[in-house]
Amino acid sequence: MIHPQYYYVKVTTDGEIRAEITDEKVYYYDLKGYDEDGNGKKLHFSTHPDLGRPFIKDSYLKITYTNLKKEQGYMELKRTEIPQKALIQLENKE
């Protein structure tokens, strides 16, 4: 059975556009995320092609990860919605 894991990320870069076959712009990120207990993990994720732009700098994301397919989705959150232990780790990285 696949159990999703959730990691919280603060966007600190503009992302990287990699060569794509289509005209859609997808931005790729390699950032460290933290679970609700403050445990860190290096995450590799991207924007959805429909977004067509990078994530806004200094925004917060909740990334859904699974062991089989890695990133399964993301959701933008307000700073106040980030679990306290994860937020402490994210704020210490600045």
UniProtKB/TrEMBL annotation:
UniProt xrefs under SUPFAM superfamilies: BC4932-like
Gene3D superfamilies named among the record's database cross-references: 2.40.50.480
Pfam families assigned to the protein according to its UniProt record, in alphabetical order: DUF1093
Coiled-coil residues: none
Designated name of the protein: YxeA family protein
Organism classification: Bacteria, Bacillati, Bacillota, Bacilli, Lactobacillales
